[in-house]
Write a structure and sequence with these properties.
The protein has three helices and 14 strands. By secondary structure, the protein is α+β, with helices and mostly antiparallel strands. The strands form four sheets. Strands 1, 2, 5, 6 and 9 form a five-stranded antiparallel β-sheet that branches. The protein has a five-stranded antiparallel β-sheet with strand order 13-12-11-10-14, with no helix packed on it.
Length: 163
């Protein structure tokens, strides 16, 4: 069994993955969660780690390369001259492990309304606050207890951390 690199048609990585898996083939399509600013609002999207590529594990003696090339969503095999591009099992295993770790880490970092945070930078450094909501892509609204009165503070996301 050898891992090969396939190109896909534009924005068809998921389609290629599904159609190849329907043929009983092992396919690896790494994705990650990305945060983008769209129309002034922060949105999370799932994107391809390698846009335009998927990886497929094949037994070279039994594989039908013509069938794979004609699968919906698949472009072609990546080649270096006459040789097909291959990847080692250790590299694929490392990519799989890294994408799982990244997904877990991003889920743990997610702040929810009411989470306690500590301000780490700026004039309010060292004070505790309560996370309220996002204010765009790079700032957040925190609830701060000052002189027995709660005040809202808009602060950069880099200036506080979750407790």
């Amino acid at each position: 069994m050898t891992w090969y690199v396939l190109t896909t048609k534009p924005r068809s990585e998921k389609r290629a993955q599904e159609n190849l898996q329907n043929q009983g083939l092992e396919v690896f399509y790494p994705e990650f969660e990305n945060t983008r600013l769209r129309q002034g609002k922060k949105t999370k999207t799932i994107e391809a780690l390698f846009p335009g590529y998927v990886f497929i594990n094949l037994n070279t003696e039994q594989a039908n390369f013509n069938s794979i090339r004609s699968t919906r969503g698949v472009g072609a095999f990546v080649r270096f001259g006459m040789e097909l591009a291959t990847l080692s099992d250790t590299l694929i295993d490392k990519l799989k492990a890294d994408t799982e770790i990244t997904a877990k880490a991003s889920a743990e970092k997610m702040l929810k309304t009411g989470d306690k945070v500590t301000i780490t930078e700026g004039p309010f450094a060292g004070l505790d606050a309560i996370y309220q909501c996002d204010d765009g892509l790079e700032r957040s609204v925190l609830l701060l207890q000052l002189i027995q009165k709660q005040s809202k503070l808009v602060i950069s996301n880099t200036e506080f951390e979750k407790k």
